[in-house]
Amino acid sequence: MDTHGGSISVWMATANVPVFSPLTGYVETDVCVIGAGIGGLTCAYLLSQEGKEVVLIDSMEIGSGETGRTTAHFFPPDKRYFELERAFGVDYARLVADSFHQATDLVEAITRNEGIDCEFERLDGYLFSATRADTEILVRESHAARSAGAVVSMVERVPGLSFDSGPCLRFRNQAQFHPLKYLSGLARAFTASGGRIFTQTRAIDVAGDSTMREVQTHGGKIRAKAVVIATNTPFNDRVVVHTKQAGYRTYVIGLRVPKDSVPRVLMWDTGDPYHYIRLQTPAGQTGHDILLVGGADHKVGQDEHPEHRYNELESWARERYPMSGPVEFKWSGEVMEPADGVAFLGCNPMDAGNVYVITGDSGNGMTHCTVGAMLITDLIMGRANPWTAVYDPSRKPLHGVTEFAREQANTLSRYRDWLTGGEVESAREVAPGEGAIMRQGTKKLAVYRNHDGGLHVLSAACTHLGCVVAWNSAEKSWDCPCHASRFDVNGEILHGPAMKPLSLEVLNEAGPIAGGNQGEGAGDQGRPR
Questions:
Q1: Which residues pair with residue 329 across a beta bridge?
Q2: Which of 78, 204, 345, 470 pairs as cysteine with 372 (C-beta 3.0–4.6 A)?
Q3: Is 268 part of any domain?
């Protein structure tokens, strides 16, 4: 799978994802779904099962976005039940618990009914304290989770561990799977029922009204009665949703451990940022498992050299799992954190009732995206859904006002980057395989030097709302610290909400640039004009 120069997850390394052709020309359909991750593919599949004609498009390939970068677990909400109850009430928390339960059941049912071999497995999940002082959190969560209808119990420790977790909450009947094998099977089932998939097809605009929408792509147009935008963060909404959520990078390492040396359970702690753990058995392997340990989150674009986060995860894991062998996988992904902790699933606030969004996945992307697909299918089919108000994208962040204010202050502060100098004074200072921001007059340039010495010179202004992008040395990308757009070294979009690539710039440096080009030639190393 093409990772666009970034890290490779265990899922990318162990799945054969079906390949589809780009869109060329004009098509008409009942529903156009944008985004071929779990949210978009599940929604497309469910609607096709209802008899709708559905066209699914993606700017890259099946699962090449954030679904391929998850740890692929189904466990309770990242927002604690006691926090949901305090902010919204018991009935609200019960609806969230019901949606999570039904989403996990749906994935299991699809896996069984469509014969998808994706290693789906029911497991117990354990919430444990990052410190002994957090035990009170477990007590509060236990009461609230029971009130919400979850099957939960307090136990002395996680059974079978090599370390003492201390008191923890056991949530019965959680699950895990191989996300890209699931998407591959889902894509085959969708196309077998008449659905059409076009990859390498980027949507650049959604126009129209409540009767008909037109999706413009570089290869053609799609006319549809309804549009579902399942692109991790919406590209069609320039401001409204993006002020209510923030993008974070989250990191994962995969360590080789002896077979059966670690219990097959899901685990997550009460830390901030928190750690999450699961086990993956590589296909055909009988002698070892892969222990997946994730966490060390930070805001997108606000750590230029995040490799230390992998080291921190490794140190944390080796202290608790001394049998761990070499690190075989390292990768990161992007998580959208809503201000009030609840996903945005349903009608897009800025449109007339026939454009829908799936975003705000928080730490529960597989679950939230499946919930969103179920909810939106009901809305398109004209059915009432009990979760509609819970996940309504137009709601105000009244119950997350402190977090909302903090995130907005953080975003606004990043615009001061335009007043500072560059990280380097000359492109000569940029090492091969690295990037840096350089000031040239009133402009800031994003300068990357490839391993052959050639330069890729781009505008450093994010094409969403003009924030100065930052270099990400772990993923070799330019990341926006304001609204979490990401671009590759040629300026092409890796993650929205940006809809346009970074523009090419000309580097005005006198004299030769070691190992590269000078003057206008420096810009020519990037994306073709």
A1: 254
A2: 345
A3: no
Q: Tell me the residue range of the domain where 518 lies.
A: 420-524
Residue type, 119: E
Tally the domains of the chain. Answer: 3
pLDDT above 70: percentage of residues in the chain: 93
Tokens for 54?
Answer: 């559905």
Residue type, 503: S
201: nearest Cα among 237, 239, 231, 180: 231
CATH number at residue 55: 3.50.50.60
Report yes or no on 47 lying in a domain.
yes
Contact 507, 526 (CB under 8 A): no
CATH of the domain at 467: 2.102.10.10
101, part of any domain: no
Q: Could you tell me if 239 and 358 lie in one domain?
A: yes
Q: What is the pLDDT of residues 324-343, one digit of tens each?
A: 999 999 999 999 999 999 99
pLDDT band at residue 134 under the 50/70/90 scheme: confident
DSSP one-letter string for 215-260: EEESSEEEEEEEEEE-SSS-SS-SSTGGGSEEEEEEEEEEEEEETT
Nearest-angstrom CA–CA distance, 270 and 135: 9
4 or 407: which carries more pLDDT confidence?
Answer: 407
Report the distance separating Cα 45 and Cα 68, nearest Å. 19
Do residues 309 and 431 share a domain? no
Phi-psi sector, 141: left (phi>0), alpha (psi -120 to 50), beta: alpha
Residue 328 class from Cβ within 10 Å (0-12 exposed, 13-18 middle, 19+ buried)?
A: middle
Q: Is 43 exposed, middle or buried (0-12, 13-18, 19+ CB in 10 A)?
A: buried
pLDDT one-digit tens code per residue, 13-27 = 999 999 999 999 999
Backbone angles phi, psi at 510, to 5 degrees: -80, 145
Tell me the C-alpha distance between 207 and 210, whole Å: 10
Q: Are residues 443 and 300 in contact, defined by beta-carbon separation less than 8 angstroms?
A: no
Full-model pTM: 0.92
Tokens of 196: 């059409």
